[in-house]
Design brief:
Layout lengths: L10 E5 L4 H12 L3 E8 L13 H16 L3 E5 L1 H17 L6 H20 L4 E3 L4 E7 L5 E7 L16 H5 L1 E2 L7 H10 L21 H5 L8 E5 L28 H8 L10 E6 L22 E7 L4 E6 L7 E14 L11 E7 L7 E8 L2 E11 L6 E6 L4 E8 L2
Parallel strand pairs: 1-2, 1-4, 2-3, 4-7, 8-11
Antiparallel strand pairs: 5-6, 6-17, 8-9, 10-11, 12-15, 12-17, 13-14, 13-16, 14-15, 16-17
């Protein structure tokens, strides 16, 4: 375990969820002799649309209490359900209503764990908050000599969770600790078993942060009413007629992106929005707001040799556009845009200036292999042009960029198109 900075005399609150990762984070801090207490937060009561039992959070709390007793640290409880609903769930509903696909886990970290939860921990006397994220943090000196905090990818490439922290600020990072960031998951399990922690064999949580696995249409129907609309299929050869106006679709993988001139970047990132006349109706659906680009399941439409995938949705006309095959050209795009007001630099001292172009490693979803790309800072935002076409670029999700030299996560932004 590596923890930078002198923590002597400081109090650390561990966000103990009942899972093995946060349990081992607490274990390592306690063994190192730090002043540690466990803080369990409840963030969700409603079970509408969830695919687990009503008492899952109660079971998590019981396990977390047993872990705290086993380690020998105090246990505290806090209910942040109202804050979570306002800052995370309402954001989800709003984004889906606009036809965008949000990532609530990213907002859960920036708005809850390292904001509302951090404030609650400080009210209980904590100086730092520790979590079980698989990522690393260190500190360097900025241009003015003041400390600058860095997030680096976790040592376990299969579990690196830095992506979910892509909206944190320097102030939030200054109070954050990630005790398991430099070890791998099998080692975490081994440490938990050897210490006899009740969470040692507990399965990793899945689904929406603090809500769990959900039937998304049922969950969203709490606020977004269902409405029948058309499913329209777009053929592969449709894109032969689009390449001049929309060069970012179906571009050859061996294209030299260094040859893309700044004035061409916007054309590469421009998304095509279909009309029903572009294809043929093959079925109906229950509401365009319930579906997302790249989705395969949930359409219940047969008669195809290969699976069909969602290429685009239109909230205005309540239409879903689909294409047959995993490599359908409508799923493959070369570039994306992040609007200027939705660009977030973790390293504000490394912000790009208008007209600047830099090479970074980029991912557009959690656990996606990092992709080589060029970032173009233009007047209206950042445009990311990839070396190779990307499958399922989805508005509302986060694009995150890393320095290739040391895997430091530098910034992120919401994909606008």
């Amino acid at each position: 375990m590596e923890i930078n900075g002198n923590l002597k005399g400081k109090k650390i609150a561990v966000g103990l969820s009942g899972g093995v990762d946060s349990s081992v984070a607490a274990l390592l801090l306690a063994r190192a002799g730090y002043d540690v207490f466990a803080l369990f937060m409840q963030n969700w009561h409603d079970v509408t649309g969830t695919l687990h039992g009503e008492c899952e959070w109660e079971e998590d709390r019981k396990v977390a209490e047993m872990v705290a007793r086993r380690i020998g640290i105090p246990f505290e409880f806090i209910d942040l359900s109202d804050t979570y609903r306002h800052r995370v769930v309402d954001y989800m509903f709003s984004e889906y209503s606009k036809g965008r696909t949000p990532n609530p886990d990213v907002l859960c970290n920036s708005e809850i764990k390292f904001d509302a939860f951090l404030k609650a921990a400080r009210d209980l006397g904590a100086d730092y908050v520790a979590t079980g994220h698989y990522c690393r943090k260190d500190v360097t000196a900025g241009p003015d000599g003041q400390p600058v905090y860095r997030i680096l990818a976790g040592a376990d490439g299969n579990k690196d969770q830095s992506y979910f922290l892509c909206q944190l600020t320097q102030e939030q990072l200054s109070a954050a600790l990630f005790p398991i960031g430099d070890i791998v998951k099998p080692e975490v399990r081994r440490l938990a078993r050897e210490a006899g922690l009740p969470s040692a064999e507990k399965k990793d949580s899945q689904g929406i942060c603090f809500v769990g696995k959900v039937d998304l249409p049922v969950f969203l129907q709490q606020k977004l009413a269902s409405r029948e609309g058309n499913v329209v299929e777009i053929s592969r050869d449709f894109y032969d007629r689009l390449t001049e106006q929309y060069p970012g679709y179906g571009t050859a993988a061996d294209m030299d992106i260094a040859a893309v001139r700044p004035e061409e970047v916007k054309a590469f990132a421009r998304a095509y929005h279909y009309r029903e006349s572009d294809g043929k109706k093959i079925g109906t659906h229950i509401g365009a707001q319930y579906y997302t680009i790249g989705q395969r399941k949930g359409l219940n439409i047969g008669g195809h040799r290969e699976p069909i995938f969602i290429l685009d949705t239109s909230i205005a006309t309540n239409t879903i556009y689909v294409g047959e095959g995993h490599e359908h050209p409508g799923l493959m795009r070369r570039a994306l845009k992040v609007n200027a007001d939705e660009v977030h630099w973790i390293r504000r001292d490394l912000r790009m200036a208008p007209g600047e172009v830099r090479r970074y490693l980029v991912r557009i979803r959690y656990r996606q292999p990092l992709q080589q790309a060029a970032l173009h800072c233009l007047d209206d935002g950042i445009y990311i042009v990839f070396d190779h076409p990307q499958r399922g670029i989805t508005p509302g999700q986060f694009a995150v960029w890393y320095a290739p030299e040391d895997m430091e996560m530098l910034g992120s932004g919401v994909i606008s198109e």
